Amino acid sequence: MRRETTRRLENAESAVKVIDVGEQYITLDIPESVYDAERAIPYELVEFDAKNWFVWDLDEKVPRAPHRNNGWAGRVTWGRENIDFDSRAGSTFEEVIDALNGRSDGYVDDSWRFHDDEEPRELYPMSILPHADFSPEPGLMFFDFDDVVEPRGDGTAVMTREVWDIVQRLECYAELSTSMTGVHCFTRGEMPGQVDGKKVLKDLNQELPDGEVGHIEIYGYPANGRVMGTTWMHIDQTPRHTVAERQDTIVSLTDELLDDDDTLTEREQAKEVFEERADADHGESPGSQSAYYGLNPVTIANTGAFRTYASNGQGPHPVHGGTSTPDSESTNFAVSRSDGWKCWAHDDGGGALQLIAVEEGIRQCGRASDVMQHPVDALRTCLAARDKHAPSTLRGESPPTVALKGVLDVQGVDYNEDGRLTRLNYELASGLFKEMGYTG
Question: Is this model's pTM higher than 0.70 or not?
Fold first, then answer.
């Protein structure tokens, strides 16, 4: 990390000061605006190496990545279904802070391109909860308290003592939310096995002076990723840099919050463990990645007008060509091995599979980014990839699970749409996939 950036992290002051800890409420001194607040980013979150940092748009509340998209500052697709680990839009903290010119207090580069209907605006560093198969262990846990802080309009606010006590138990970095009515905390650990649905959402008990009663949400490993909307408005009297493992506290807290209806019995937990082990037997372990996600988009793009006119990875779109200029002058499309592809004309992009979907007419450009989230379209895309675009690379390789779900869909076989396939369904779908052929 650059020395200047390190100095900024060390010297950043907490934006939120604790004035008084009372029996019912905690009195806080808060900034006038989230835009003007001091930002104190914890070292231990910076050092959590999962390529889970983005450039954050505070106005639209969406992640962006102009430094990975040739200056394009539109919203990015960050889900694990879209591209593999090496090609994701996420970055390290160092990459993001470099893109922001070493600043955490908002920056916009003159070279960044926004949508025609958007005014260029300052962007900020932001971290997300990474997907489990991209995460080191212990994973990252996010505690989101909503409607638990009441600003008074005079530069102060009150927080419920109930939330303050939970924050103190977690002994971790805590920040004020963008609305200044909530609190975020970060620890490491994992969701206890008895939590049904791998998240916690519960009402709290204590009212604010205006009668509002807030709630707590807990997300994290080993569930799928989540945008957190970090502000870095650190609350002093909570650890400045600590994002440490707090598994015992996580377990005791979830036990206190959840009713029997919100938890799994020991038998149900055992069933989940059995299914996870069965999944591991057929290649569905959390760390596995289908070879289909690793295809090189540069190779797929080498066709049509792009093949004729491209230079240094930019040129006319390989399918629809130039839109506002002739193909010979168009640069509405860019592609690279590490960053995937981007069409500026339709604000679309992704990896090799998304581009195959466009080239094969499975999706129109502008609607391709989520093709691998829809089983039947994913199936057609993977068949095209195997039989037409990369037969030598994909011969004998297992397709993504979402494509196997597409096999079951077209065969009318029931399966768990939100989770892993049972061994029986996996083996059935895999066998049928091998027998299928791409017909266009």
Answer: no
